[in-house]
Amino acid sequence: MDGHRLKQRSQEPTRMEKVVVIVMAASGLCAVSSHAGRQYHFVYELKNWTEARSYCREKYTDLATIDNMEDMNTLNSMVDLSKMADIAHKHRAWIGLYDDVDSWRWSLSNRTFYTRRQAAFRKWHAKEPNNQHSGEHCTEMYWTGLWNDRKCEARLKAVCLDITGSAVTFVLVNKTMTWTEAQKHCRTNHTDLASVRNMEENEMVKQLVPAGQEVWIGLHRDSWQWLDGSHSSFRYWHDVEPNNRLSNETCVAADFSLSGQWEDWDCDFKREFVCYSVTGVRKQVLRVKLKLKKDSSQDLNDPAVMEDMLKQLRQRLKDQGVNPDDVKLSWRKQADGKVFHKEEKKTEKKTKKTEL
């Protein structure tokens, strides 16, 4: 039965927000809009996954997105195994599928319940989340109040959330369930699985966790996603894949010695890769002006930072009703190889009048 309840009286703590703010649609953002077909390109050069992504975006559209078995048959008919390097685990090529380990979101999706800062609150244990056993897509809270990623099939007690007006109540469910079962139970009998928006709420939930135990909370993540934002759900995994054998296998390669079946690999391995381009497209280059906070040391030309900004832009387009499969976004490098340059402030010389 449902047990102990705690009511919220907390105020949101101060926390640094993202340092990048999109000010206006304007350096090196390419928007490709099309419903047209996809053309694949094998590149027989050895690059890690990040390097392959950059190459494909510069020369074509992106690393390959694959929608169905027909696409796989096309790739199998195109590949020239004799051109692939004779290295360990040869005949494997990177594609555009990756495990987005940062795609955590709350079960309660009502956006009015969170500010951006609250939605981003996390209290992970050291070196977590790590997806250590592959498929750790759900979140448990330890009795210490720290969080860990865990397979959603594990059976734990859960903390639900009740919302009545502005009042928030947390409720311990004193029976073990999978994360999905816990979500269903909380949505049926309460509002949802617990969302934790700040340190005070984290302490409130912590007080409900029995000593030495763990409980489910509502944070979970989407797993494998396509680089270009495509919603294709097609998967062609090899047996026992993905297995995260090396504990950091978040990128995908197709093994063309086995009909292109997919495997998860550490992204730092050097492999050949497959790009795609879209025929009959309308391409538009927009200048983007970004504003940094005064104390920010953020490097806008850092590939990870640029990728995060693309994610934000894709989400904004989606929020405005644009189908993400219809528009492909990428950054365009300028002549010196950089995408962004700091805008110098213009100063006006002042002249002083003197009277004689």
From TrEMBL:
The UniProt record lists the keyword Disulfide bond: yes
Keyword Disulfide bond: yes
Protein name from the UniProt record: C-type mannose receptor 2
SUPFAM superfamilies in the record: C-type lectin-like
Residues in C-type lectin domain copies: 35-161, 170-276
Coiled-coil annotated spans: none
SMART domains (alphabetical): CLECT
PANTHER family named in the record: C-TYPE LECTIN DOMAIN FAMILY 20 MEMBER A-RELATED (PTHR45784), C-TYPE LECTIN DOMAIN FAMILY 4 MEMBER K-LIKE-RELATED (PTHR45784:SF3)
Pfam families, sorted: Lectin_C (PF00059)
Keywords: Disulfide bond, Receptor
InterPro entries: C-type_lectin-like (IPR001304), C-type_lectin-like/link_sf (IPR016186), C-type_lectin_CS (IPR018378), CTDL_fold (IPR016187)
